[in-house]
């Protein structure tokens, strides 16, 4: 009887503070901010209080280039919190300065994160106590801070399951003698010690930071440690769906049994938010040039190659010119996103952009940034020349658009191999950059293999849509995640009794 009375009192207390409170904390990079803001919007839809913790320079760009203020005003439980940053927005997030980026994140984030979590427990705070943190899976210091306050942390990895599993398998590769290897090694040599990938993975398909003879490389050690730290988190969220990466997900679950696959996240959001906003939600850190949609409107069905290398890729002048010649020589229409900071170094930036724009008028269209989901959904787009970032890959899959993959770094090398060899959704052009290869690949995708690729792409697009529909795998996993977060809230209330 006493137990029943205690539970009734607990329910009464939960009704007084009925909503859990989740802190969402991405690293300050376009792809991570985009997907974790979509996650925050989905959480807000369920009535959960959300604090989106980001850096001041990222918040300023969101306010400048998106409608986040009006969009999130619909959810009274949503709140932005910011951290000062000692690095500028255009600080290189790749190459030799990458560890400087992550070192700065840790140093600047820990004090304000701890203070926010502590102050949130004071009675004067208008928001409910923090139920859990959903942290980017490369921010393991969040676990250290949260454990002090007995707050659970759920990891969100914004990369594919196959890339995550490749990262997780690095110690196994070292133990088997398949690492290290330098850049002068035979890059087509098979890699046999990543479970589930034995039959098709090559050295060149591993993340590019593994192309080293130095196993003490700081970034390699950092990624390995951060990935293995996933087992310390309460659970893992992946932006993927069971029908796409099922066999690899089974491998991951042997180490991370509490795994929620809730992707494609942008499609799940569109499904859930349709009654509120039928349009695509933009979380862009650059100004989107929507004039390209009018240009696409004037082009025939599946006649245009969309070209975008994402938010981080940096290219030399020579690489840009090889792509330009290849695209022009293919004879196909192309829409090319040339980010303001795409060119390595600033010397001659204005000149090369002028040359490209003038030389492209006959066959193409160049913009600084595009509304990508809208572009890929346009009927005129027949192929996507991509860097194989995971958001771009998923958006292409959902739109049923075949890909030509030119990966730049990190997870993108693994993604491109799966696109070409496992899912049969495109062609892999990694480690080559010459005009003849670009022309050949574009013609192959848009002519010779168009019907074959479209058939595979359409089949996978239907599976993606089914996964986020009611009763689909991702939709059910989403419901389970929300139920488990609410259970955490109830348990916390019970523990304070």
Automatic annotation (TrEMBL):
SUPFAM superfamilies tied to this protein: UDP-Glycosyltransferase/glycogen phosphorylase
Q: Which reaction does it catalyse?
A: 7-deoxyloganetate + UDP-alpha-D-glucose = 7-deoxyloganate + UDP + H(+)
Q: What is its EC number?
A: 2.4.1.-
| Residue ranges constituting the Glycosyltransferase N-terminal domain according to the UniProt record | 22-149
Give GO terms: molecular function aspect only: 7-deoxyloganetic acid glucosyltransferase activity; quercetin 3-O-glucosyltransferase activity; quercetin 7-O-glucosyltransferase activity
Q: Could you list this entry's UniProt keywords, alphabetically sorted.
A: Glycosyltransferase, Transferase
InterPro entries this protein is in? Glyco_transf_N, UDP_glucos_trans, UDP_glycos_trans_CS
A cellular component term from Gene Ontology for this protein is: cytoplasm
What is stated as this protein's family in its record?
A: Belongs to the UDP-glycosyltransferase family.
Query: What is the protein name for this chain?
Result: Glycosyltransferase
Q: Which species is this UniProt entry from?
A: Nelumbo nucifera (Sacred lotus)
Q: Taxonomy-wise, where does this protein's organism fall, top ranks first? A: Eukaryota, Viridiplantae, Streptophyta, Embryophyta, Tracheophyta
Gene symbol here is LOC104612055
